[in-house]
Structures are given as C-alpha cells and as structure tokens.
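Data deposition worksheet. Section B asks for the primary sequence of the deposited chain exactly as it was used as input, without tags or linkers unless they were present during the calculation. Section C holds the resulting structure in token form. Section D is free text for depositor observations; keep each observation to a single sentence. Incomplete worksheets are returned to the depositor.
Section A, Depositor: J.P.
Section B:
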Amino acid sequence: MILLTASGTGGHIYPAIAVAQALEGQSVYFMIDRGRVSQKILDQYEYPYIDFSFTRKGIICYLVSFFRTLLFFKKHDVKKVLSFGGYVTVPVVVAAWLLRKNIVLFEQNTIPGRANRFLARFSNKVCIAFEESQTYFKRSTILGGNPVRKKYLTDSVMDEILAMPWKQGRRCLVFGGSQGAHYINRFIQSHYEWFEVQSKVLIHVMGNAAYQKLYGDEPMVVVEDESMQVKRVILPYILDMKSVYDWADCVISRAGATTVAELIEYQKKALLIPYPYAADNHQFYNASAYVRLGLGMMVRQVELTKTVLKEFFEYEISTDEMEHYVNKGWMTLLD
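Section C:
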C-alpha cells in the first residue's frame, strides 16, 4: 500500500490525486483534514481515506493523529508515504519516520510551506515544482514538476456549456481557485459589459459561497445577446477543468500552485492575480516564476484595471518555453 497525505485545500489534494491516478492498479490510501475541501473532493473521486479532526495550534490533535497513524501502520503494510504539504501531514510523516518508512515530500509552491520545511529532515526525497524552492531545503531536491490530473470527474454542467451557441469572440475563463476569490469576482462583475464591448466571452467560476449568495441553488446563470448567442456563463464550480481549459483562449485567476501547473500543462496564457494574504506570499512568487517563463502577466489585485486587462489581451506568449518547462520527473519517485 502507498499512503498519501495532504492538507485540506485543492492546491494540496489535487496533486495528490494526480499521483494516485498515476499509481492506478496499486493500493492507495489518504490521510486528510476532516471537514475541509479535500474531504469532499476525495468523496467525489471515491478514494479511501482517514480524516483527522485537526487544528494546527492544537497539540492534542497532533498527538491523536500521530497515534492513529501508528495504529494504521500496524494494521496495514505501507510501503511508501507521499506527503503533499499542510499541518495535517506533520504527525503522519513523523510516525512514518519512526517506523522507517520510505517518505517523499512534494512541494507545490515556489516558497515551501512551513510543514514541508520542517518535515524535510525526516524525508528520503523532496520533489519541488520550481527551481526557486531549492534554497529552502538543506538536502538535495528533485525538480520533478507539480503533478496534474489526467482524469477529471464527469461534469454534466460543463457538457451543457460546451454545447451552447457561443457568440464569436476570444474566450476567457475567470476563476479564483477551489475556494473562489472575492476581489476578482467583484472586479469582473463590475466589468461584464466591458468584456462584451471588447468581444470577449466569459466563463466566470465564482466559488460556491459567493455564487450561492447571489444566485442561490441555480446550477448556472447563462447570459445571451439579442440573437440568443451566449456571451457569458456564471457558475459556482467546475469539476472537469480540462474541458474548460480546452474551451478557453486565456485565463484570469489566482496563482495557486495547482493552477499554475495546469496552465503550463494546457499551454494557456494567463493573467495571474496573487492572493495577497497567502502564507509567505507564496502566490506572488508562483506568479513571478510563471511570468519569467514568458507565459503570461501578473498584477497585484489593487492594481487591476481595464488598462491591465487590455494589455493582457494584447500580450503574446511563446509555447516553446512552456513545453520546455513541463517536467514530469516526479513520476520517477513512484518506483
């Protein structure tokens, strides 16, 4: 059995699922936070897991999680532990280290999280997605890239959207990550008509909470022009990200590690708007790495204007660098 452990956000759990998909045919199990986004996602993908009731400042929950992990190891023949960051992984990795398990850490961001910086001393290997991360680890690392899913959940809503009679124009996907983005949502909403004047059609993924506040339980909002052609679709969430990336000519989004990896994988020009309150400002550095590759633009959210949008739509990228950067070296760590 291979054990995968990850914290509660999509940025942690999606790379773990990508690796689990690459391990198809082998026995895998997850250890995660209870009541977080990751639990809902794993339920949808139907992977088995243990969930811990966890708060990062509660010493008792660390101890309970540690002993539950030891008990799990006693009952199951775990060959390898793959850890994808977040505080919930700390007791899991420490328990694995005490039992001399093979441990591989995956760091998705340019600025490694505090948990991975601490756990690196217990690991056999550390896989990083960006060269910039190397300086934060005292041991050698493998530049293996950030795993991206190859299989996505069936999404009937996305199938319906793709079949719609879309108005002619450049297709722009707007989203804020698995938990949405209030600032981006507000700015885009206030400029819907500007996009229309500029001949841009939109899929705007708001995040569940923001969408339900405005539109309730409606599965999506479809806005058409006078000729009944679709110029904008607003919805809470999309399961099949590959399909929507294939639809889009360009993307406006936050700069989470999974988002950046997917943009590289699917070769999409992007305007990245880093979340300014992310730990260690890591989204800013993720976006900076992306921009240095010549793949898109970055703007701080307080500097987001129509002028920036216009510059973005006129920006040209070269996919040569993008293809060079796609790195699947992490797959060698699964042997």
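Section D:
The two ends are 13 Å apart (CA to CA).
Residues 212 and 236 are 7 Å apart (CA to CA).
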